Amino acid sequence: MREAEATGRSVTLKVWRGDPAGGELVSYEVPAQEGMVILDAVLWIQAHVDADLAVRWNCKAAKCGSCSAEINGFPRLMCKSRLDSFQGDITVTPMHTFPVIRDLVTDVSWNYEVNKQIPPFTPSEEDLNDAEPWRMQQEDVQRLTEFRKCIECFLCQDVCHVLRNHEQKDQYYGPRFMIRTATLEMHPKDSLDRRPMLKHKAGLGMCNITKCCYEVCPEHINITDNAIIPLKERVADEYFDPVRWAARKLTGGDKRRRRPVRGMEDAPDRR
């Protein structure tokens, strides 16, 4: 930082300081250096001004998802946001959707509780007992690879209006877990039918496809077009297609390969 300090160049960061009881924005003058990102500036404050400033980070390479925050009101990774991309004072606040622990650190444990409710990958007995290597079409591999790029920064959860503005965490799993479910539901070797869970417990119908989750994703995963909309189509085919309904009535049931998630076969729609 010596070169930056010698030139007298600096930037004002307004960082939210507080805890669950409340807090305020505190201004800091940070010496700017070429190539600095917001996380660099926050760590400079921690090292030189306020050693007790709480911030969560790990890799500083946009791969761990730890340093999520809101910069000028927009959910971003601090390690991927360059100082020179902003004009004037820069405001750094914790993610709005999750409870504050202290300063820029929020409690995201709700997400892990949701993840526990999604049945894991479950191959059929036939596939489990098959001695031959499993084979998949390259198209299926590429589709699932996109979803696997998620770094669980939870920025998509933070920006989702159902969770952020309406606080309906008990009604909707959120975009991150639509991606997680799509990874399983679209896997050709998975044997579970998660459509009842998506319609009822996961609240897939709550999403009105604003694509705000896609806009904040640091991995550029097309959450809406490639995961949520295809899942909506699968649920609509199952529950609202009159032709399929008539066919099931005539044939006495659905002959599809996948079996429904236990406990969700006849789950009532809570909305």
CATH superfamily of the largest domain: Alpha-helical ferredoxin
Query: From the 3D coordinates, which CATH architecture of the largest domain would you assign?
Result: Orthogonal Bundle
Q: What is the overall number of helices?
A: 12
User: What average pLDDT do the residues reach?
Assistant: 91
- The tally of structural domains comes to 2
DSSP strand (E) fraction? 15-25%
Radius of gyration: 23 Å
CATH class category label of the largest domain: Mainly Alpha
SSE succession: HEEHEEEEEHHHHHHEHHHHE
Low-pLDDT stretches are: 1-7
Output the strand order for the largest sheet. Answer: 2-1-5-3-4
Strand pairing plus helix content: what structural class?
Answer: alpha/beta
Choose one word for the global shape: elongated
Write the layout of secondary structure elements.
Elements: H1 2-7, E1 10-19, E2 22-31, H2 38-48, E3 68-71, E4 74-77, E5 90-93, E6 100-102, E7 105-106, H3 109-116, H4 125-128, H5 138-148, H6 155-159, H7 161-164, H8 175-185, E8 192-193, H9 195-199, H10 212-216, H11 223-240, H12 242-251, E9 259-260
Parallel strand pairs: 1-5, 8-9
Antiparallel strand pairs: 1-2, 3-4, 3-5, 6-7
Helix pairs in contact: 5-8, 8-11
Task: Write structural notes for this entry.
With 271 residues, the chain is of the alpha/beta class. The protein folds into two domains: 2-106, Ubiquitin-like (UB roll); 109-260, Fumarate Reductase Iron-sulfur Protein, Chain B, domain 2, CATH 1.10.1060.10. Helix content is 36%, strand content 15%. Strands 2-1-5-3-4 form a five-stranded mixed β-sheet. A two-stranded antiparallel sheet has the order 6-7. Helix 5 packs antiparallel against helix 8 and helix 8 crosses helix 11. The longest helix has 18 residues, at 223-240. The radius of gyration is 23 Å and the shape is elongated. The N and C termini lie far apart (56 Å). The model is unreliable at 1-7 (pLDDT under 50).
